[in-house]
Amino acid sequence: MMEFELLRSFVAVAECGGFHRAAEQLNLTQSTVSQQIKRLELITKRPLFRRTTRTVALTDDGEMLLGDARRLLQLEEAARRRLAAPPLSGTVRLGAVEEVASGSLPLALGRFASSHPNVKLEVQIGVSAPLIEQLDAGKLDVVLAKRPRGTSRGRLMWREPMVWAAAETFELVADAALPLALYRERSVTRDAALTALRDSEWTWQIVYTSPSLTGVRAAALAGLAITPLPASAVTAGLRVLGVESGLPALPDLESAIYERKRPDAAASALAAVLFSLGQALVRPAIG
Predict the structure, then answer these.
(1) Which of these, 87, 162, 138, 111, lies nearest to 270 by C-alpha position?
(2) In whole angstroms, what is the distance from residue 226 CA to residue 202 CA?
(3) H-type alpha helices, 45-168
(4) Which of 34, 73, 154, 214 reaches 20 to 30 Å from 163, CA-CA?
(5) Each residue of 98-151: pLDDT tens digit?
(6) Is the pTM of this model over 0.85?
(7) In CATH, what number is assigned to the domain containing residue 34?
(8) Which residue range(s) make up the domain with 40?
């Protein structure tokens, strides 16, 4: 197993172009650096430098190792900084939309809690617009929500299609008003759906409202109405009404992380965990 001290000397020799300057940079003797390089070459079973009386140059194997060595040393330094930092404490107030709360949020919170056991979490589930308003009012520290159309605030985490969803047995009736199930409050999906319908030739009526994703999805599952959903929120018992149905196209949905002004270290750490997990998630293809 390669030791970090050996890799540190290896990178220094490669970057300084010689053992003497590398030793000065590391505050070691030249003989110590030379011995460490020999140990590394024994471990790797490959020559890492071509030495002459005037120059020291990397071999092909040395060039290949250099990038990996730098990355390992960067990770080691980052780990040292994290361990040296005082443990985080306090309370972080998190707001999240229901689609995330029932999906990837538990994994993110578990990962955060294991790294920062002294931080208390208060989680509120709701609709994007009210959550962002509470953030602006200082009642929440971090919000994971849908980004309103035409805005660029927040850090974009992912983008996915929004679709019309209905029960598998639901049938569109020609010349009849389109029954809609929508969020009770103003929301990104509600606004996008109504805007699309106003620009179409469809007549429609809102027959069911709910403050939650579970509620509007239940109406669709019961066959009472159709509802606009993120593609990832379409569950068994629902089908997507495609372009062949004649319904207007819906825009993509963007999910973003919002932080209050001047967040403390604990809130910033939670936002970083949420963002890194969101970037790793596989989302439905756009289109």
Answers:
(1) 111
(2) 13
(3) 60-84, 98-101, 105-115, 128-136
(4) 154
(5) 988 877 788 889 889 988 899 999 999 999 989 999 999 999 999 999 998 888
(6) no
(7) 1.10.10.10
(8) 4-84
